[in-house]
Amino acid sequence: MADVRLKNVSKRFGESKKNDAVMAVKDLDLDVADGEFLVLLGPSGCGKTTTLRMVAGLERATSGEIFIGDRSVNDLPPGDRDIAFVFQFYALYPHLSVYDNISFPLRAQNMSKSEVDEQVRRVASRLKIEHVLNRRPNRLPSGEQQRVALGRAIVRQPQVFLMDEPLTNLDASLRSEMRVELKHLQQELGTTMLYVTHDQVEAMSMSHRIAVMSMGVLQQVDTPLEIYNHPKTLFVATFIGSPPMNTVACKVVDGHHLQGIENTFRLTLDPSYANRLANTKEVVFGIRSEDARLVNDDSAQLRGTVAVREPLGDETIYDMDMGQYRMAVKTPPRQIFRPGEPVGVAINLNRIHLFDRVTGQAV
Amino acid sequence: MADTQLAQRTRTAQFEGQIRPRFSWFTDRWIAISFLTPTMLLLLFISIFPLVWSLYLSFTDWSVIKDANTAPQWIGTANYLELLTDNRTWQRFVVTGQFVVPAVVIELLLGFGIALLLNRKFTGRGAIMTLLLIPMMLSPIVVALFWRFMMQGDGVLNYYVVNLFGLEPILWLSDRYVAPWSLVIVDVWMWTPFMMLISLAGLSAVPNYLYEAAAVDRAGTWFRFRHITLPMVMPLLLIAIIFRTMDAYKLFDQAVVLTGGGPGRFTQTASMYLYDVAFGQFNTGEGSALGYIMLIVITALANLLIRALNATKST
Hints:
Chain A is of the alpha+beta class. Chain A contains nine helices and 20 strands. Chain A folds into two domains: 4-234, Rossmann fold, CATH 3.40.50; 242-356, CATH 2.40.50.140. Chain A has a six-stranded mixed β-sheet, with helices on both faces. Chain A starts with a strand and ends in a 7-residue tail after the last strand.
């Protein structure tokens, strides 16, 4: 087992002098503790996969240093880093049997035949793929191909698992099943795991900590609940959560009052906010859909009309037309409003989020 | 007046949204027939009729010159029996085989090797590719003509043999042991680029993540070649082999220009022999029979290769 540390790592694609150069990763500092399950989360093109590939040695960092355990691995080829990589498309050797696929990393280490056999059978029984050991991987359903790819990764007992969106190609029900299984597997093995995904549900449900990236820049590294409850940037706030956090741009008026840019509404915050807002003129006000309620009494700070109603069974999401902006509100399933009906929105002022409108940083 | 206008308007309205009745006979079926007919007629006259007619002639004793005014005389399988028991026929097929096998094997090895070298990014790759493809774009007769020029007794090849290596000049085109190999050399020069091109297409289709997985798994160069590159490229290689085998099997033009079948008949291929029987001696019936024997041999060969191709695909 080992920890993984990235110190000031950058990756540029293309020549620096030319205009088509792209900074895929910028000055990334990231520590993954020994035995930790850390998820790199972000939209496509945010640099998360490039980061993972740099740790694997499939890409070379343009600058900065990468450590696995105590070793600086910048100059080591992938095979010498003692890592296992699970690819998005599994990358199984199509002309080898499942048995040979799984045993391959062991045979490359010149392990004895009987020991290889023992290891392969142990892993196959753990992943419940004993019955397909003699088959070719490309004839298997995607769920089993996924297990074979996992088997090839865990059989060598590496220092670190690196996984690049391994569940993306599975259908929804299989994906949630594998999510639980992967998490269980990682707990059981205790191996450090660096896991890339764009799926926030995977990130929230599986990880010890999440590192959110955007445009090559690390936004926040924290536990899932901390990321959800205390997003440090506007990007994190709107990327995590379903439906995304409601946001609206406001002016700061009289210290602790917020006024809509188009003078559409006015919110009075606790006077204690005056200090925090002292240096900010314009903010983005954010509230999660579950921190607002639809009411028909005086407790409403805002008023709007129901635009769309989405019943989900255990709850209902109302998409509210608030004039200049829209807002999603989660309600209990039996509280029913009709589209077009005017309703008041009561906001839990203890659960609001404020971001600087220019920098996007939390205020 | 107003009544007729009204009547017309209702009639127009009635036909709106329907096929106009004038063309109602012009159905999809008719369109299909009218497009197919010219091609079918052309095929019938230049391909199907000659095929059937020559099959008939192969069972007759007939010459298109000597017996032009008499009907072909049915002699059953006599032509076939005569050809198959004649040592000369077998000799021609042996000559053909001795050309086809080394030519295709060398082209495959060289072409695949060059493709492996070219399957990466480097400056001047495009220029090198174009240069390598030139031989394939030339007419076989042109190629044969200038190789004959280089291979003749006082040609440029012998200049190097004598002056660089200090050897006796080689009779490239008139030595019974060297001449068949000269045909192979010219064919290799001309058709290696074809093998290279198809190999390159196969190589560039191998997904890179397989090589990345192999790098993480510490696979050696040989493993990568044996278990990733080769199996992925194999179907395309087999297609290239099928093309080249069928083409080399009917070798005619290059051999006529280079050796004319000589010395003696040592480089006379099956196609050249067929030409000789059918248009030298004008034994049309026997020539047709030989043509059919050649057709059966190449069909059998192609089927074996296609079976191998399907076997690689199903794994």
